[in-house]
Amino acid sequence: MPIDMLSSRLLRLAPLATLALLPACTVGPDYRGAPALNAGSAQAFVRASNAGASAATPLPSTWWRSLGDAQLDTLIETALAHNQNLQAAQARLRESRAQLRQQQASELPSFSADAAAVRLRQPDTSSLSSSQNAQNGQGGQNGGTPSGSATRTGSGRGPLQLYTAGFDASWEVDLFGGTRRAVENATAQAEAVEADLADTQVSLAAEVAQAYLGLRDQQQRLALARQSADLEQRTLELVRQRREHGVATDADVERQTSQVENTRANQIPLDEQITESLDQLAVLTGQAPGALDRELSAPAPLPSLPAEVPVGDPAALLKRRPDIRAAERRLAASQAQIGQREADLFPKVTLLGALGSAAADPGHLTRKSALTWLAVPYLQWDIFDFGRTRSGVRAAEAARDEASAQYSQTVLAALQDANNALSRFGHQRESVARLQQVQASADRSEVLMEQRYAAGASSLIDLLDTQRTQFNARQNLAQAQADLLKDFASLQKSLGLGWQEQAR
Questions:
Q1: For residue 425, what are the contacts with CB-CB under 8 A and spacing of at least 6?
Q2: C-alpha closest to that of 410 among 204, 195, 188
């Protein structure tokens, strides 16, 4: 190619290159962070003092280890590894990250290559010409052209061949930041989905802990109910003996029989609850119902609460709870979307380029005469759209305002959740302390009644009645202690504990 021709073409492309190098602006409001709420600036939770909780740094993310139950640790770790809802949340995170990478790639030029080999065979007209000549010869014998003057026809052509190869490129110049805002949107959405996954982990850990604590509570109460039924059966036998000696009536026997059957009937729903808890734990850990029956059917004592229950402060809660982080990231995404819509108000410039070669022989594709090229700046601007783009901007602004209100509501709900959990934990702790006093009183009464019975000052029925009261006190205390542990798990959930960082 001559030097002057090449220079002329480069000069024509110079404005295009200059346009691509212009400093681009980014329209739309920049994200300045979530709105500040006075509710999250307090130094301590309102209900923390009544719960006996401290403002020290909360327990680690693996809060369940503070209960000292190895079986509970194994169940939660298994659930975090194999729970199906959690795996679905992880898949959603991978999807959102892939969408982010796809959006980031839109900032770069796109290239494509193509090649083709075309073979075209035209119809052979020689046979048609011969047929016409034969007809003309017959006409000559009948008075037409002499037979020796037949028309000469050309032979058929061979197939035509064409080989092409080329490269195409396109790049939308992000002059007004629409693509950059789209990347901001996708980034914030991916981070929101990651926070959703963490929230699923928090809920799952608490749910497994509560199901396990419920199972141990049910097993413990069932064992106490069976002991109570044995005592009542002994009482019934004594009442029958007293009736035989004329000391008790038939009504006394029926009343005691009713008490025995009622206690045995109460064991049936406990058995049912144990089965449901076993199946619930199996499903939560990603296994089929019945998979944990052999491992967990044997009763075991409830774990013990840690000596101290630290909860931190509201400001730390706002940074830690995954649902708050998810709401804040969705607010950032909605803010970026305003810039996306505003960029549609301005022209879009796309640079198109093509380089190719075409020849009848594949060996000639590299020849200069076979080369073709194309460079096109493409401008698109919807000047008259009757307010559609402006309406899109207003819709994005309304979506931002909605996301801001949802964030504020999420923060308030989180603070309410934490304070309610503290209140329940504090009241249940007080209830356990009172029931411990009740059991201690029942234990002392049982000891005194045994002494009276040994001295002949009271009957065996009186002793059995005292022991039955003692068993009832134990059952009530056991259930209250289980409820306290469940409230402890709910408290850790309300504090946003139980999630783990996800690998990129």
A1: 51, 53, 309, 484, 487, 488, 490, 491
A2: 195
Q: Rounded to whole angstroms, how far apart are CA atoms 490 and 204?
A: 11
Model pLDDT, residue 478: 92
pLDDT one-digit tens code per residue, 253-270: 898 898 889 889 988 999
Q: Report residue 375 as tokens.
A: 């460079």
pLDDT in tens, 471-487: 889 989 999 999 999 99
Model pTM score: 0.80
For residues 395 and 334, the answer to whether their CB atoms sit within 8 Å is no
The alpha carbons of the chain give a radius of gyration, in whole angstroms, of 42
Which ranges constitute the DSSP H helices of 245-266?
250-265
CA neighbor of 494 nearest in space, from 220, 146, 210, 127: 210
DSSP 416-473: HHHHHHHHHHHHHHHHHHHHHHHHHHHHHHHHHHHHHHHHTSS-HHHHHHHHHHHHHH
Please return the burial class of 90, using the count of CB atoms within 10 Å of its CB with bins 0-12, 13-18 and 19+. middle
Extents of the domains making up the chain: 38-116+161-494
Measured CA to CA, the distance from residue 67 to residue 73 in angstroms comes to 9
Other residues' Cβ atoms within 10 Å of the Cβ of residue 498: 28
On whether the CB atoms of residues 210 and 277 are closer than 8 A, the answer is no
Among the residues of 22-69, which ranges form H helices?
48-51
Across 93-111, average pLDDT: 90
Q: Which tokens go with 420?
A: 């309610």
Two tokens, residue 105 = 């790639």
pLDDT band at 421 (very low <50, low <70, confident <90, very high): very high
Give CA–CA dist 352/168, Å, rounded. 8
Question: Among candidates 7, 13, 3, 4, which has minimal Cα distance to 374?
Answer: 13
What is 38-116+161-494's CATH topology? Outer membrane efflux proteins (OEP) (1.20.1600)
Q: In the structure encoding, which two tokens stand for residue 50, read together? A: 């009544």
Residues linked to residue 110 through DSSP beta bridges, in sequence order: 170
370: nearest Cα among 362, 382, 378: 362
Contacts 24+ apart (CB under 8 A), 257-263: 259/232, 259/235, 260/229, 260/232, 260/233, 260/235, 260/236, 263/225, 263/228, 263/229, 263/232
The number of beta carbons lying within 10 Å of the beta carbon of residue 128 is 11
pLDDT tens digits, one per residue of 390-404: 999 999 999 999 999
